[in-house]
Amino acid sequence: MADAEREAQLAQNRALQGEIDDLLETFERQRRELADAQSRLAAASVTAWSSDQLVRVTANAAGVPTEVHLEPDAFKRTTPQKLGASITEATQAAARLAGEEAERTFGALASVGDSIPDLPDLVPGAPSIKDLVRDLFPEPVPAEPAPAQPVLMDDEDEDEYYRNRSYLDGGR
């Protein structure tokens, strides 16, 4: 009887060891995929233009602008207030694109994690890795509608604008 119980325990231990080995293999594969995704994302950049095509913003994967380009004739085609709005618009668009890129990069990894047990399932009281990932990548904020096209000045309005130095008093 003791030998039968011992064999049953050994078989149970082998089965448990097989499950643990499978979990470790899955964990290692996911760790490599996460590292690859982080590397791709760290090297990624996005570019967005303002709707008036006067401003181009390039941002890193975190949505932080790394380059702001103004078209050479931007100061002739619009007012400082409208140009500021164009810069804001292009910067926000680049940040949204960066968020979408991060979502695409890590989105595939999120579904893989659903198939394996979470850390608290294995170790009671341990923090949840799935909750940590959800906290790192919250639901995206819906995009605001694009602002209306700025009105470009004709030559006469532009001359008047600069002649009267309206740019110094906010266009009043």
From TrEMBL:
<dbReference type="Pfam" id="PF02575">
    <property type="entry name" value="YbaB_DNA_bd"/>
</dbReference>
<keyword id="KW-0238">DNA-binding</keyword>
<dbReference type="InterPro" id="IPR004401">
    <property type="entry name" value="YbaB/EbfC"/>
</dbReference>
<feature type="coiled-coil region">
    <location>
        <begin position="1"/>
        <end position="47"/>
    </location>
</feature>
<protein>
    <submittedName>
        <fullName>DNA-binding protein YbaB</fullName>
    </submittedName>
</protein>
<feature type="region of interest" description="Disordered">
    <location>
        <begin position="138"/>
        <end position="172"/>
    </location>
</feature>
<dbReference type="InterPro" id="IPR036894">
    <property type="entry name" value="YbaB-like_sf"/>
</dbReference>
<dbReference type="GO" id="GO:0003677">
    <property type="term" value="F:DNA binding"/>
</dbReference>
<keyword id="KW-0175">Coiled coil</keyword>
<feature type="compositionally biased region" description="Pro residues">
    <location>
        <begin position="139"/>
        <end position="148"/>
    </location>
</feature>
